[in-house]
Amino acid sequence: MCGIQLQVWTEQSSSRWEDFYREHGSILRNRGPDHCQMVDATKHFYSCRSVQLRASVLQMRHELIPQPVQIKDDMYLCWNGEIYESNLPSSQDEEQHEELWEYETSDTLIVKEALKVALLEQTIGDDIDDGRNIGNAIAQVMSKLHNAEFACLILTKDNIYYCRDNWGRRSLLRWNCPDGSGSFQIASTAEISTSDAENKSYNQDDKEEKEDGQEWTEIPPGAVYRIHIGGEDGTMSTSVIPFSSSSSLLSPPSSNSILPSVVPPTPPDGVSTELWQASFVLEDCLRQAVKMRLDQHAPSAVLFSGGLDSAVVAALAAAEQTATSTADQKHQQLYLYNVSFGPTFEKSNDRKAALVTAGMLKDRYQDTKDILFQDIVVDWEDIQKYEPHIRTLLQPKNTLMDVNIGIALWFASRGSVDGDENDVYPDGENRIRSPRALLLGMGADEQLGGYGRHRKAFDKGGWGRLKEELDMDQARFWERNLGRDDRICADHGKEARFPFLDANVVNFLKGLPLDQICDFSLPPGEGDKRILRLVAARLGLDHASGLVKRAIQFGSRISHLSDAKRFGSRRKAKGEASVKSK
């Protein structure tokens, strides 16, 4: 994983904006604590006053590869992501059938070499179409990454290219300078000074007013964006090259085309044979998705509410670590991060559920003693201390709901406030290393009908209306959730990974009829995410399999504490209230 940041300053731009962002890099460095460097690329853009490309690196696979990476004399790559499966040529022996996630090879080098090959295959000359051909080559490579989570930026003479994977699981933002000069930035995170963030306050009445820092916008996923800066006057033009239509999906499996590894002869009462079989296929897909996303050489962590989605991810992770351990190889620790807030944290529904489910996991997977539950309790003083920084990470998100969710995610993904000194390992050895891979359950509700409004949609318009609601949720997921969540979690030098958004999981669910996914004739806690509840029950998660959906801001009690402190009561708070300057 890495942090990406490009600054382009034109001759017409006011120096005050450049000075304001000159110190950019502190947040970028948090995303990649292992290495950070800058390349001055001004000489490749004759009409610009300054062009600087920065990248920070979080080493996850094999050796550390400093970024930006030079592809050729005037071309640089910044890559932020993980490739799990692709159609790229492999340096591995194909007879071994190894997947990219198993390689002892850096993804950055794989992408670099693939780009070099693709560029050679394009007709690249000195004519005006040269930039378009380069863009086509980049889109060709990215389209082959059919099971990957990434954002990347490529800089070459007079041209800038950037893109995100089809779901938008890695954050990438654009900032346009308000002075109209054409200066801009492209970055993993916004960078607003702490003093500026501290001067923000909530305004409950004016949702439309544009705020300082709101020039930052999320870059849409699923396409390569090209900015051409040419001529002596620095004229800019923008074009879009979509990924190929098949890039986000593998060949869609279905319950009829793929048989589960093991199917009992008869399903439980009230469960059709088709649904029962489909639940086993989903379990197999999720098991492989979790396996690919666990850190192979270090501890991993799960953002753990104790609810259905995170419990399934944690159970599959624990099972995988038990299955792969040997007498000569110590288990990798699995951390379960649970967060609750305030003086009444004992009332947190997430904490109650997490304690129960963590106990069940430890009982079921006794061969691995390294399931470590971290009970993270945060008080109002800590929130006040870190909130300005968290609001900076949230940009361009600025609602009260986003702030509450962001605070919960930031403290949860940080892990124990005391480090890991209090964790006791059965063999007494010191094997402490903070997890860098953080598995999240996001994406389950949007695909499996997990929200209360999904039930309302079905009640109003049947399966057709439900499908429209699910399609809408999935289409806007990148803008509403994923970029925000990546910015928050990555601030601790952790890489957010999303098993429910694995291409095989997504494709399988897309191939299922909706009545095999959810059943709203059953009450909440049974009919919503019906297929996943069957998986959870088989994994021994009896408690979690019957829990009703509860959003993190409510389950952790951050809303209870935050709203009461800010507005006197939760009733006076409005979740869509925006953040504005005093």
UniProtKB/TrEMBL annotation:
* Key words of the record: Amino-acid biosynthesis, Asparagine biosynthesis, Glutamine amidotransferase
Q: Does the keyword Amino-acid biosynthesis apply?
A: yes
The UniProt entry, under Gene3D superfamilies, shows:
Glutamine Phosphoribosylpyrophosphate, subunit 1, domain 1 (3.60.20.10), HUPs (3.40.50.620)
GO MF assignments: asparagine synthase (glutamine-hydrolyzing) activity
Q: Where is the composition biased (Basic and acidic residues)?
A: 197-207
> Boundaries of each Asparagine synthetase domain copy?
282-361, 459-538
Renumbered to this chain, region (Disordered) spans: 188-215
Query: Which one GO biological process term can you cite for this protein?
Result: asparagine biosynthetic process
The record's InterPro entries line, in alphabetical order, gives: Asn_synthase, Asn_synthetase_domain, Ntn_hydrolases_N, Rossmann-like_a/b/a_fold
Q: Which SUPFAM superfamilies match?
A: Adenine nucleotide alpha hydrolases-like, N-terminal nucleophile aminohydrolases (Ntn hydrolases)
CDD domains in UniProt:
Asn_synthase_B_C (cd01991)
Segments forming a coiled coil: none
Q: List the protein's name.
A: Asparagine synthetase domain-containing protein
Q: Which organism is it from?
A: Cylindrotheca closterium
